[in-house]
Design goal:
Blueprint: E1 5-6, E2 13-14, E3 18-20, H1 30-42, E4 47-49, H2 58-68, E5 77-82, E6 84-87, E7 90-93, H3 97-111, E8 116-121, H4 130-142, E9 146-152, H5 156-168, E10 176-180, H6 192-199, E11 202-206, H7 224-227, H8 230-235, H9 242-258, H10 262-271, E12 280-281, H11 286-293, H12 302-312
Helix pairs in contact: 1-11, 2-3, 3-4, 5-6, 9-10, 9-12
Pfam families: Aldo_ket_red
Domain NADP-dependent oxidoreductase: 16-311
Protein name: Oxidoreductase
């Protein structure tokens, strides 16, 4: 794997590909999760990202069981998230101080560790004063239960707001933001990337394969039964359109010229975008994960990168552009 990278302005050093665990405990059984962890560590990775809502806590429990079974804690940069909640089957947020600190304690119990290296606020909560949310961050870091903190799924102005609040009160600075970012989803380049760069936050892309679309597996269509699924329509359907299809064809063309898989091209592109620390790659099976890990050492030539940039270029207009 390529050289490690520093997260923001922190002392955290992570591999340039992170391991996502959103399927653990649901689509991925424990034995398969163990196999994924082994393959990832063998490839030189160290960043494992999870959340309290992944599998209703089962993803964290899987990691905790691995640690109890002998996985060295110091082999991991362990990241988790709190604030996202499910209310009557729908995603919501609770970034109140009491909820966040209780959620952190519950995560530590499931993870079977006394601290996490990165604790991320999983969702913006407009009902809770930001001062209260950030007080929970300060408390968690002061207690030693959290080494560093970041945010996840925050808009550009959210990101700048929390960074400035921490700076003004001389609190522990936030070090990262986790956001969806891929060749088919470049919206963060308008405001999130500039905010992150201005305030010294490293970027962790989630869904770097465009929710699976950039693997090329839907080039010839989607099986009827799967296409009818409610989750598929909501999660993958947003990236099944003519624009994305054109991007996928360019990815496939570049991959063919290089003799690699489209997955490798897509990951190498996002891995080396400005501000990016490590794309988070998740998989149902260890075989799928190994396909992603094959991108660890791929470096795209400027000509290939330019073609990918051009076909996927996002719309940028007022007020991002000067007038």
């Amino acid at each position: 794997m390529r050289p490690p990278r520093v997260v923001g302005k922190s002392d955290l050093t992570v591999s340039p590909l992170g391991l996502g665990t959103s399927t653990w405990g649901t689509k991925t059984e424990y034995d398969d999760a163990v196999a994924q962890m082994g393959a990832y560590l063998d490839a030189g990775g160290n960043l494992v990202d999870t959340a309290d809502v992944y599998g209703a806590g089962r993803a964290e429990e899987s990691i905790g069981q691995m640690l109890a079974d002998g996985l060295p804690r110091d082999s991991l940069v362990l990241a988790t998230k709190s604030a996202a909640v499910i209310v009557e089957g729908r995603p919501s947020a609770d970034a109140s101080r009491d909820h966040l600190l209780a959620a952190l304690d519950a995560s530590l119990i499931r993870l079977r560790t006394d601290h996490v290296d990165l604790w991320q606020l999983h969702a913006w909560d407009r009902r809770v004063p930001i001062e209260e949310t950030l007080d929970a961050v300060d408390t968690a870091i002061a207690s030693g239960k959290v080494r560093h903190a970041g945010v996840c799924n925050y808009a550009g102005w959210h990101t700048a707001t929390v960074a400035v609040h921490q700076s003004v009160k001389d609190g522990p600075p936030l070090v990262s933001t986790q956001v969806e970012y891929s060749l088919v989803e470049r919206g963060i380049e308008r405001e999130v990337v500039p905010a992150a760069e201005n305030h010294g936050l490293g970027i962790f892309p989630w869904a770097p394969l465009g929710r699976g679309v950039l693997s090329g597996k839907y080039r010839d269509g989607v099986p009827e039964k799967r296409a009818a699924g409610r989750f598929f329509k909501w999660y993958v359907g947003r990236h099944l359109n003519d624009r994305a299809a054109g991007i996928v064809e360019t990815v496939a063309s570049v991959a063919g010229e290089l003799g690699v898989m489209p997955v490798e091209v897509s990951l190498a592109w996002v891995r080396d975008r400005p501000g990016v620390v490590a794309p988070l790659v998740g998989a149902r099976t260890v075989g799928q994960l190994r396909e992603s890990l094959a991108a660890a050492d791929l470096c795209l030539a400027e000509e290939h990168r330019r073609r990918l940039d051009d076909v996927s270029r996002p719309y940028v207009g007022y007020p991002e552009t000067s007038i």
